[in-house]
């Protein structure tokens, strides 16, 4: 008599398994790609005459065995993540920013300049200035590439890469002529004022609070890409350039803006490295963050939400790489090879998934 | 006059890595495959070329090995972009990382950490009889190692193939409109595959030349961004082999001048002098991208089942 409507309760049930299936189609290939990459890496290690189990054990556990390892991992996570954003944000509009290391270094230069020139200011004023200067300097640096791209049609891959090489000379000049630390035995600037340093969290070794700034930024970027019209337009341009143009989105200006924002994020990474890790600027501080950022950005395949998690995984591998070389005599470069393999297998898994789901 | 002769004589071998790698890039580019793994392939080529030369004792074998290993990377790029139709830039970047990793791994495994870095003999100059006796020109052009002549010969050969043969015309059409080429019975996949393999091999050789020409040492970072400049050079030359030769002279000239100015000490901090080649590259690209042509299908994959072309 009171027959309940059949559809409403059924709908969530139908959506439930569908959701689960979608998630499985996403997770299983990713896990398989990682496993396959480690399997191939293990074979290479065997061929080198070393023990892959011992090598992978030290790669995967170093970050979690000691507080030191964990702090080091989080300190690596920050620049890797920010460089990944610096790559992925312009990529959302279809542009390749290969210049994160130059933007990071110029950002560090901006931060260190403020930190040295205004070293007497209290922290409440100085620290924000250092971070903002870093972001602005990074934005200016990628802005050069953006202007060349929008006004003169210069390929952004080339301009951003070439700007990296200019930045190496620039920081070398700053570190050896402008504010040199003669005693360092290596091109480095003098230290910034006390007020320019990010306060540490906890004891021995403290975690710098740039990690918190980064977490805030993660949320902000997710909201920006998902909830603002500019973010929507950027994703539209990346998804279908022609359709976006037809709908009146000014695509080239947006692509330029993407590059500038990417550069600002990388510049912030440089300022955080100065204020949180080194307390000064030194040659080589860009480490291999450019490559790692690109790897993370490519692995995320368009998902801004996935980037922080992937970046953490990469930071774990990178911190583990050093201890792998010490304990298992497997060269650190093995980790880069495994990362490249993960990326290639992920790309292949996309194709396999598309084929399997169609059938 | 002596100074200019000397600079030009230095410039010719400095052109070689640019020439070999850029002609390789142009070769696959004209078929539509935009390789962006040059920097990695040059580093790998330098490492493999050095290590094989060191172990076997022959620079020729080392160079061949560098060609082969980079060619294998090219084959992966070709397969993944023509058969699987994965994005050319993404695969190229992935191969760049893999090549960097492989180069570091190989050097560390074969050589390890040593007090004295191992050395290989540098390439000998082989003056061409008669031609090298011409005053000025002979000294500048015809008194170099064999790879110099080979690089120029390869450049001319690629130009000849592309612009003076029938199959070269067919080959170039693939980079402009693969659909039209396909409908004429030209095998797009095969052309893209062989040109990417050979082109990548040339990039590997370009890397192998670096440890063999100046010092006989292999150092990390000896490629120093040349792989990226090579891509700029391909654009600058409008993806034409003969213009690439002129572009290579420009890049090599900047490199030689910057080093010379650094040695001479001209009152400007050397960092700014070393910046010059890169700044010049940026400026030149403004003009290159305005005026120079590029293959219209460059960097895009061809799917014969897709109706959309262009």
From TrEMBL, chain B:
Keywords: Cell membrane, Membrane, Transmembrane, Transmembrane helix
CDD domains: TM_PBP1_transp_TpRbsC_like (cd06580)
UniProt KW Hydrolase keyword: no
Keyword Cell division: no
A GO MF term: transmembrane transporter activity
Pfam families in the cross-refs: BPD_transp_2 (PF02653)
Membrane topology category: Multi-pass membrane protein
Signal peptide: none
Location in or out of the cell: Cell membrane
GO CC annotations on file: plasma membrane
Main location: membrane
Protein's recorded name: Ribose ABC transport system, permease protein RbsC
